[in-house]
Specification:
The protein has a six-stranded mixed beta sheet with strand order 2-1-3-4-6-5, sandwiched between helices. A two-stranded antiparallel ribbon has the order 7-8. Strands 9-10 form a two-stranded parallel ribbon. About 50% of the residues lie in helices and about 10% in strands. By secondary structure, the chain is of the alpha/beta class.
Amino acid sequence: MRLTHRFIFVLTDLIIIISAYVLALLLRFKSLIDVVDNQWSTLVFLLVLIPALFYVFDLYNHFIYIQRLRVFFKVIRVWLVSLVIYVVVGFLTKHFFLIESRAFIIMFFCFSLIFFFALRVICLKKMLETYFSNSKRRLTCKYVGPLEKFKELSKFFDANIATGLTFVNCDKNAGSPTGCNETFLYSQAISYDRLYKEIKANLVPGQTLHVASQLFNNLRLGWEWCKIDAMPVYTFCQRKYQFCRDCLRRCLDIIGAIIGLIVLAPFFIITAIAIRLDSPGPIIYKQKRCGKDGKEFVFYKFRSMYHNDGKEPELDSGDNDHINRGMLKEETLKDKQITDVGRILRKTSIDEWPQFINVLKGDMSLIGPRPHRPHEVKCYHDWHKDRLSIKQGLTGLWQIYGRGEMPCDKSIFLDLIYVMNRSISLDLRLLFHTIPAVIFGKGAY
């Protein structure tokens, strides 16, 4: 049913884009047929760009439409980002395939904003409520949690028919487990390890799990589709048939790594010269890291610290403090260890670029948990080890939403959120969100 919703959403978006495009053409050029260069390529570009951004900002998730104000701000963000991308791409390509007319650009984006605002902010919630007013169209959602909260949550779902869920108590449905399409977990866990164990116990491959937890407030992901008792509600869905997805993911990794190495090759040379002039030592820093299932591999980085032929006990001790004592990653590094050029490399994440080689070799993936060192892995708690069940990545949730600003348990829980929700579409979304995270250097250390 959700695929049907998303198909309808995408189809509606395409109709809106075409309508805004036609109106802008008519008002600016007084005609529709071959009135300006790049007419059709511009339309194709917009038909791909805007729906992709709607997906990235989670506007194809019908649950969020119970919050009109949040939808309003998401639509504004999509509109601004799409406008900026259009202008930047047009400037960089000298409008090789995009319409250059400023009047057309202004009119198209004004019309599209009006149309999307009318549909998504004003009309869509009412349309969903009308559709789901027929109880046969709703999915059955099993409740797991304290019994005293069931009645309150049931009233919430009755008042928000747009969710398309019929709420039932777990005990009442115990005799027919196949009757439940989705599960809602109300967690009172006060630690991430307990929360992870509760989620893992209720997560069924191929089924959707909604989780309400106070601990989500500390993650700042912005993934919640509502809040209940000031507790964000996140959605988890563990995909089936991961083997096929892994094969496709490997193809994307190879393509991405090759493109990255080719595009960044000139900057590799510049960075290498800067490192060599800044301090003595190797340009590439090699280190053992733990990959999938704990298998060790040689990990590559541009050197950002002063060279030490021996072991670095202070750094090793700091890494252990990050795991055992919950210290922030950036607090475990001593400023005197980092070179002047190294500070720039770390802040801009340029020091991570050689890991495209690791991706190409198959040691890592473009998206995944960051690989830890062997002595860090030895300090893992039992629930931490699940982050090693997949290939480690060049970027991921920790890179985007936390990095050095996040204590260990919280950062590992972020990694496990990715492990549980892993999909090709999520990977593409995280790649997009990595760009602003790198540009603004959030949490870099």
